[in-house]
Amino acid sequence: MGSLLFLLLCFTEWASAATVYFAVNLTWATHTVTGVDREIILTNGQYPGPELRLNQGDDVYFDVYNGCPFNVTVHFHGIEQIGTPWSDGVSGMSQTPIDSYSDFRYHWKADQYGAYFYHAHHRGQLEDGLYGPIYITPSSTVTKPFSLITSDNDEVQAMINAEENTSPLLLSDWRLLTSEQIWDAEEASGVDAFCANALLINGKGSVTCFSQDEINALTTPAQKGTLGNETLTDIA
Ligand SMILES: *[C@@H]1O[C@H](CO)[C@@H](O)[C@H](O)[C@H]1NC(C)=O
Ligand SMILES: *[C@@H]1O[C@H](CO)[C@@H](O)[C@H](O)[C@H]1NC(C)=O
Ligand SMILES: *[C@@H]1O[C@H](CO)[C@@H](O)[C@H](O)[C@H]1NC(C)=O
User: Fold this and answer.
1) Mean pLDDT for the chain?
2) Domain boundaries in the chain?
3) Measured between alpha carbons, how far is 167 from 164 in angstroms, rounded to an integer?
4) Ligand 2 centroid – CA 94 distance (Å)
5) Other C-beta atoms lying within 10 Å of the C-beta of residue 117
6) How close is the Cα of 126 to the center of ligand 3, in Å?
């Protein structure tokens, strides 16, 4: 009996795992984010990139066509890449970058489950919009922790349903300057840029522009001390 159950569980796990092909076409285009136009990296014409939805155990082929006028790589944040280090996407370490107008195939196994994201991993391109959510549904053999929260069967079932129907919620900061413009400004000034223009939820948000008087009022005494007789200014 025990071994029959084990076989059935294995079968269930095997049956839900599949080979998944996911292709992204990266382009460098003018796009409106926070109501303001700037050049960003679009993934299949959109920002943020489309969701990669998987089942635990899936074999994933992630094809990148780099239509941008610069090199890129893609990293799969939190994915362990056991046995597939060449698919980790770290430019200069696990791969040479993907040249403009050429492609590259990442191949890895979704051994884990849960929420992750893919993102650019070459220079500062993460800030140019190349990222999208990954969700890996746990295998049916994974024990749910929901009974630790409640002993009510209806509530447990509601949590199981909610877990099966999750939608990605991607939080990010956003700048109106491109990553290379920020890099140039940092080199010219010798100061790291910490400021962002907006906080985004699934790529949506707004920019608040403070007047110089409001900025002055918000400047802390410690900041004033390091500024001499200068004032903080709006970043863009
Ligand atoms: C990528 O997108 C660009 C712009 O829409 C299009 O011209 C090109 O054919 C696409 N390439 C691939 C490989 O899908
Ligand atoms: C882009 O990547 C290719 C292939 O890895 C490399 O030969 C080339 O030097 C890179 N170009 C730049 C501008 O870094
Ligand atoms: C700030 O301005 C005052 C008045 O013009 C001057 O006396 C002082 O030296 C300045 N401080 C710095 C750090 O430049």
Assistant:
1) 91
2) 2-169, 179-227
3) 9
4) 14
5) 21
6) 40
**Three-class SS state of 19:** strand
Residue carrying structure tokens 């700037």: 38
Q: What atom of ligand 2 comes closest to residue 71's alpha carbon?
A: 1
Tell me how far the alpha carbon of residue 25 lies from the centroid of ligand 1, in angstroms: 6
Tokens 């489950």 belong to which residue? 113
CA-nearest residue, atom 12 of ligand 2: 71
Regarding the beta carbon of 69 and ligand 3, being less than 6 Å apart is answered no
| One-letter amino acid of 121 | H
The per-residue pLDDT for range 15-59, each reduced to its tens digit, is 578 999 999 999 999 999 999 999 999 999 999 999 999 999 999
Residue at 199: amino acid letter:
L
Q: Is 50 helix (H, G, I), strand (E, B) or coil?
A: coil
Beta pairing partners, 107:
61
DSSP state of 143: P
* Cβ atoms 53, 135 nearer than 8 A: yes
Q: What is the DSSP letter of 138?
A: P
pLDDT tens-digit readout, 59-70: 999 999 999 999
Q: Are 74 and 132 in contact (CB under 8 A)?
A: no
CA distance from start to end of the chain: 69
Q: Whole-angstrom Cα distance, residue 167 to residue 83?
A: 30
**Distance of CA 228 from the midpoint of ligand 3 (Å):** 7
Q: Can you name the CATH fold of 2-169?
A: Immunoglobulin-like (2.60.40)
The Cα–Cα gap between 57 and 49 comes to 23
Contact 198, 34 (CB under 8 A): yes
